[in-house]
Amino acid sequence: MKKRSLLFAAGICLVTAAACTGDGSKKAADSAAGDTSVMAGADTAHTLKPAGPAPSWGKDIKPEMQVVMEKLASYGDKPIPELTAPRARKNHTPTDAVMDVMKEHNMPKPVFNVDTAGKDIPAGDGKIHIRVYTPKTDAQAYPVIVYYHGGGFVIANLDVYDPSANALADKTGAIVVSVAYRLAPEHKFPAAHNDAYAAYKWVTENAASIKGDPKKIALAGESAGGNLAIATAIKARDSKIMLPVAILAVYPVAQSDMNTASYTKNAAAKPLDKPMMGWFVKNYLNNMAEAKDQRISLVSADLKGLPASTVITAEIDPLQSDGMMVAEKLKAAGVTVDTKNYDGVTHEFFGMGAVVPQAKEAEEYAAAQLKKAFGM
User: Fold this and answer.
1) Angle between helices 357-374 and 162-172 (to 10 degrees)
2) In the predicted structure, residue 19 carries a pLDDT above the cut 80
3) Strands 212-222 and 247-250, sheet pairing
4) Residue 337 pairs with which residues in a beta bridge?
5) Dihedral (C-alpha) 324, 178, 296, 123: value to the nearest 10 degrees?
6) Which positions carry the signal peptide feature in this UniProt record (predicted)?
7) Which of the residues 129, 149, 193, 347 is marked catalytic?
C-alpha cells in the first residue's frame, strides 16, 4: 500500500487502501472506494492494548486511540514541517494506521451499503473532481451532504477521508458529495474556498442529476474542511443562493491565533501539532495578513442567519479551542448550535469508528444531527 499524507486539521477521518497522490482527483479511486473504505462502524469489541505508556502529550489518551498513534509512529516518516508539500503527501496517514491495526488484529471490515462514482464539475475557469456516495436503497430522491476533507488545505485527498464520507452516507441514508478542492501551495488561498463554494453551488443547481433532493442539502467537513463548510455557508448567504439546511464542522480551523488554550496544551500532540499548523498556514496563505481574512478567521465573521450547526471537537487536539470558540460565536449570532467534545482522542479520530469507540459515537451523533435537519 502506498503512503499517504498525514492530515491536518481540517482535517480528520480515514481509511483506504488506494494510493494517495494528494490531489484527490483520481477517477480510478472512485470505482474502488466501495472496496477500500470499509472501516468506520466496525465491531470495536476487540481489546486493543497499547505497547507502551501513554505519551507525554496525551496522558489521558484512550487505549484504542493510542494503538493507532503507536502504529502511525512506527512508520518512521519524517515530520511534515520538514518536508515539501509533494513529499508530505506521500507520508503515511492515520488512515493507513487504522487499516494496519485492523489487519494485525483480525478486525472485521464492514461493507457499507453505498455505491460510489466519480464526476468532474466546473469550478471557476477549470474543473474539480467529486466523488458521489449513494445509498443502495430505492429512494426517489436523497438528501445531500456536501463534504470537504481535511489536510490543512495542503495534503490528503478523497481516499484518505473515504471512511468519513462512507460512514456519513451509510448512517444518514443521504448522498455524500466529497469534494476534491485544489491544494496548496500549488493553489494558494482562496483557491480551496472558491472550489468549496463552486461545488456547493453546483449541487444546489444539479442535485436532481445525482438523485439528490435540492431542498435538502447540508454542508460538512473536518479540520480544514470544517472551515470550508462554515465559510461556504457564509458565502451562500451573502450570495443570496439557497442556504444549506445544516452544517457539520468536525474540529474546524476557525481562527489564526496559535496561542489558545488547546494550542498551548496540545502543542506536541499527534497526529496534528502546532508546528504542522504553522506549516499548513505558510503553504496555503499568500502572506500572513490573510490569516485575518474572515474566511480563515471564522470567529471574526458575521455568522448571523446561518443554519443549525453541529460542532465536534477532540480533547487532544490543538484545534479544540477553535471549535469551541466558533460554536460560541455561532450561538452569540443566534444560530442553533449543538456541540460535543470527545475526551481521550486526537485530531483525526472522526472516521476511525472501526477501532476507536469514541469515533463510532461521534459518527452516530453527527448522522443523527444531520438526519434531524433533513427531517428524516
Assistant:
1) 50
2) no
3) parallel
4) 309
5) -160
6) 1-21
7) 347
Give yes or no for a contact between 190 and 161, defined as CB atoms under 8 angstroms apart: no
- For cell 476487540, the residue is 46
* Residue of 5, 317, 321, 322 with catalytic role: 317
Active-site residue flag, 223: yes
In angstroms, the CA 2 to CA 114 distance is 25
What are the sequence ranges of the domains in the chain? 1-376
Determine the Cα–Cα distance for residues 285 and 40; give it in Å rounded to an integer: 33
Give the separation between CA 66 and CA 358, rounded to whole angstroms: 13
Does the active-site annotation cover 129? no
Long-range contacts at 324-330 (CB < 8 A, ≥ 24 apart): 325/254, 325/255, 325/260, 325/299, 326/230, 326/249, 326/252, 326/254, 326/255, 326/298, 326/299, 329/298, 329/299, 329/303, 330/303, 330/306
Residue 160: closest CA among 251, 26, 322: 26
Give the predicted TM-score (pTM) of the model.
Answer: 0.91
The domain 1-376 is placed in CATH, from the list 3.30.70.890, 2.30.110.10, 3.90.1150.200, 3.40.50.1820, at: 3.40.50.1820
The helix/strand/coil state of 176 is strand
Interatomic CA distance for residues 362 and 132, integer angstroms = 22
Q: Distance between CA 254 and CA 201 in Å, rounded?
A: 22
Compute the distance between CA of residue 27 and CA of residue 37 in angstroms, rounded to an integer.
Answer: 15
Give the pLDDT of residue 8: 35
Catalytic: which of 223, 262, 297, 309?
Answer: 223
Note the pLDDT tens digit of each residue in 246-277: 999 999 999 999 999 999 999 999 999 999 99
Give per-residue pLDDT as tens, 102-124. 999 999 887 899 999 999 999 99
Transcribe 25-42 into DSSP letters.
Answer: --HHHHHHHHHH---TT-
What pLDDT was estimated at residue 315? 98
User: Tell me, what's the pLDDT at 40?
Assistant: 39
- Is 115 tagged catalytic? no
DSSP-derived 3-state class of residue 215? strand
Q: For 22-30, what is the mean pLDDT?
A: 48
> What is the pLDDT at residue 21?
34
